[in-house]
């Protein structure tokens, strides 16, 4: 009499492993993106007509340029130091990277622009998410 229990058992084990792996991959690829949290609510009138309103502790700046408002991260894209905002540019005190007011790199070693944070208008306020 032939012994079918071992191959059958292996087959069932293989099915279980495949099902669990598939479930894990499905969960990995269908994971919902992390929700951004509200960093600040700022009255529009606080943002200067030209220049930036800096939130150093939360590491972002609200910038108004040609009627547009955007929130720029102040986290250096090189190694994560907090940038200093001057009237002309954003500079990194750690290794000297520089960025223009739109976050584009003007001097390395950083090689990526600064990301913009999500910004929503609610009445007279701006809501900044990070
Ligand atoms: S962390 Fe900003 S230049 Fe290195």
Ranges where pLDDT stays below 50 over 5 or more residues in a row are none
| CATH topology value of the largest domain | Rieske Iron-sulfur Protein
Shape: flat
Mean pLDDT: 84
CATH superfamily placement of the largest domain = Rieske [2Fe-2S] iron-sulphur domain
CATH architecture heading of the largest domain: 3-layer Sandwich
Question: What does the model show?
Answer:
There is one protein chain. Helices cover 19% and strands 34% of the residues. It has 130 residues and is of the alpha+beta class. The protein has 2 domains: 1-31; 38-129, Rieske [2Fe-2S] iron-sulphur domain (Rieske Iron-sulfur Protein). β9 (116-122) and β10 (125-129) form a beta hairpin. 16% of the residues are buried. FE2/S2 (inorganic) cluster binds next to loops.
Key attributes of the depicted protein:
1 helix, Rieske Iron-sulfur Protein, alpha+beta, 2 domains, 130 residues, 6-stranded antiparallel β-sheet, single chain, 34% strand, binds FE2/S2 (inorganic) cluster, flat, 4-stranded antiparallel β-sheet
How are the elements arranged and paired?
Blueprint (H helix, E strand, L loop, with lengths): L4 H25 L8 E6 L7 E5 L4 E6 L2 E6 L10 E2 L4 E2 L6 E2 L5 E3 L8 E7 L2 E5 L1
Quick structural overview:
The protein is α+β, with helices and mostly antiparallel strands and 130 residues long. The chain has one helix spanning 5-29; strands spanning 38-43, 51-55, 60-65, 68-73, 84-85, 90-91, 98-99, 105-107, 116-122, 125-129. Bound molecules: FE2/S2 (inorganic) cluster (FES).
